[in-house]
Amino acid sequence: MRKTALFAAVCAALTLAGCDGGSSPAGAGAGSSEGSSSTVSEATAREKALTLARQNGMAVELQLPGLIIEAVQELRPRYQKQLNQHLDSIVCGLGLEPEKKAEARQVIEKEIGEIIIPGMELGIFATGEQADFNAACLASIWAASMLPMNGWPSADEGMAKWGATQLGIAVGTSQGMAPIANSLSKMPGATVDELKAKARELLTLNANNLRQQLGETVRGIAARDGEVSLDLTGSGPAPIHFTLAEMDYQRGANGSLVSRHGMSLYGNGYLEGARYTVEAVMSSGATMTRNSTSTASADNTNTTNVKAEARTQ
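RESULT FIELD:
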């Protein structure tokens, strides 16, 4: 059985929100607050490492939105090293109904004909908690919001409703990523791997709250579909273009671009109207005196085009 059909069958066997391709119920309850900032000693060590890296030409200014997106993709489940939109739907459903984890694991094991091993592919279904499921879910939604599109899709709910929902996803993604980017921007001198590990840590730590916040944002903006003004002239700034009150939404080769009152809000390196960067160390050789270990970087794997709108609300 093809992998896509295989996990579609798993979705069909489970009564999880989001697995039917429709709108999921409201997000889960509160999660933990963001962890404490780096200690003075860690900051001092990074400053020394950055000075050495600059001297050796190994320091680089990084745009944080792209780094965060790449880093958190490691949180998503894979089967035979491939991402799968139905696996994304399952983890999104478990983020709302974590009590169904055992049932989901049993159905998946039956379909794939093998036992899920913790720490291996699909291990999240053996050891994952609600925050892990919501973090994986958000990783897929955030990636989907940045995927390029070359034209309006056929949408059963209508173009205005689809557009308002996509705008809600983009705004909600911006709101969720910005605090993480802000935290990483305060870590100059960290290695790229350390920044990626911190991004995954912060997303997982705050995943339950961020999932709920995203759902509320999407529902609020999607409900305003009556205010959408579609640009169907074909001569707009992007293949998909519309306005909703003070907001302008474009979707084309550069993914989602949102502006408010004419000012960039999300996309093209912007999160909540700001560009977040950090000066990082590209080689661990500049940090050999530091007593730390780096986390392996996320797989540079193309993300699967997913129906994010069905998993945000």
